Amino acid sequence: MGEMVSCGLTSPALFQLCLLLILVPYIKGRTFEKCLPGNACRSEKPPVVLIPGDLGNQLEAKLDKPSVVHYICYKKTDAYFTLWLNLELMVPVAIDCWIDNIRLIYNRTTRQTEAPPGVDVRVPGFGQTFPLEYLDPSKGDVGVYFFNIVQALVEWGYTRDDDVRGAPYDWRKAPNENKAYFLRLQHMIEEMAVKARGPVVLIAHSMGNMYTLYFLNHQPQAWKDRYIKAFVSLGAPWAGVAKTLRVVASGKRLHMLFCMNYIGVRTTIVKLPWAAYYLMFSNHVFYIYTIALDYNVSFLAGDNNRIPVISSLEIRSQQRSAVSTTWLFPYAHSWPADKVLIQTPTTNYTVKDYQRFFKDIDFEDGWEMRQDTEPLVSALEPPGVAIHCLYGSGVATAEGFLYTIFPDTDPTLILGDGDGTVNLLSATQCKRWIGHQTQPVHMFELEGNEHVAMLRNFTTVTYIKTVLFGP
Questions:
Q1: Most buried of 67, 120, 228, 415 (most Cβ within 10 A)?
Q2: Where are the alpha helices (DSSP H) in 39-178?
């Protein structure tokens, strides 16, 4: 008889087979090629970086102001407080304090924006998921944003703030004013890739896709080949959004609703005690319903069956001050030159008429802002990485506005196709990259999906899983 071995076989010639069977649990899921000397074994799941859209992450502020717009507003705070999303400030009178704190001031000399005197705004939690999972730190349903995607990632074996991280930024500004952000983003991607021994997947929503494209267009191809596995694009406004013209022209009415969960206005923000504040508005009953993250167009969703308590004109100054709004005006590279975006009794405005448009609404700083930001991604250069473009369709989306009195009244909407915010014409522009980069370009239509709701869609989450765990 042959010699016995530990696995019970009698033939010494089968010893190597026994050894292989013993080692299988240790090599499962890895290839010998990856584990050869000099090549570190990669993680089985790629790290994920989340880039939010406009209004898509928390902002905080600290005050030491020389003056205030209302006696209930605080001039000075000892600590940072939540500026966005703070539902306690989304109420009459108190919102005047909020508008004065979150607005930007454009400087034509430096061609940069500045905070009002005595206002320090910061972006909390870079590298963390919480500031974009929940826009409202209290984790109320109203401010849920990236939570569903992050929670799905956790269920697939990811860990918050480790191999899935958020990259929040000051969404009031365009990339030309957020250069430090891109350096931090680059370093975080490199750190995550080194730790995982493999490239990263970028998942961006809405305006975050424009930020991501700008970032990738400024990276060497060798860097992208090494550090980026794929770019998942959700609801991207590649060619701008028609709604932004209405926002700048006449503002977008806030339909405010009070929530029983938010009874009380923070004394660090406004001076009135809740009892006094309640008496001021005791004739109204409001309930917070849901949030809409669509380019400063509407902070709270719903144009029907809501009580309008913040007028379009009151909120317009803040909406105009955000440079990202004019950055997202429709682009001539995709919108027809004869497509009327704004129609008034005397004038029609197309993508060729922006300078006149800004002059006619008495907001010529807007034209300067557009000049500063239009070239940033207007060429729509391919990202140079594998990209998956998911976009909503089949939802009525404003593509033009008819004014009887211009610009200080609400217009009649001219509707087309899209996701309710991003026009279909804009969302599908990544198709132009097919055949113009060596990396694959995938298009995936989410029929009937609204702009923010697509982040909670089972189909979207399943698609992301396929990208992460596929070849």
A1: 228
A2: 94-102, 130-133, 147-155
